[in-house]
Design a protein that fits this description.
It holds the Pfam family Response_reg. By secondary structure, the protein is α/β, with parallel strands linked by helices. It has five helices and five strands; from the N terminus they run βαβαβαβαβα.
Length: about 130
């Protein structure tokens, strides 16, 4: 079973993402900011990460930079999930090492499509 770490300061967003991911048979871990997400990655590196941009303590881009410098930090597929939808932020996220980028609010179809694109979910899985 693959593990996805949902990193967002909003408990509601984490809950919604968890419900979708568990429906596709992922094991889900949660973190409320980049610092706690790094601590979870140190315990067990997830297969995928849904990552918010704006969070207290450590932002998404700060987390991603530190993650990618870790020994196994290139392995997780990282999908930014944020309200920041301008070309500058999208290109900045991809340059920092994100694999994909989706806008909030997202629905099951959008999230499933991105997970298929990054190889975390088979196209035929529901």
């Amino acid at each position: 079973m693959k593990t996805v770490l949902v990193v967002d300061d909003s408990g509601v967003v984490r809950k919604v993402a968890r419900r979708m991911l568990e429906g596709w048979l992922f094991r889900v871990e949660e973190a409320e900011n980049g610092e706690s997400a790094l601590a979870r990655c140190d315990l067990a590196m997830p297969d995928g990460i849904l990552l918010d941009w704006n969070m207290p303590v450590m932002t998404g881009p700060e987390f991603l930079a530190q993650l990618r410098r870790r020994a196994d930090g290139a392995r997780p597929k990282v999908v930014f999930c944020t309200t920041l939808n301008d070309v500058h932020h999208i290109s900045q996220a991809l340059a920092a090492g994100a694999d994909e980028y989706i806008m909030k609010p997202f629905d099951e179809d959008i999230l499933r499509e991105k997970l298929v694109e990054v190889g975390l979910l088979d196209d035929i899985e529901q």
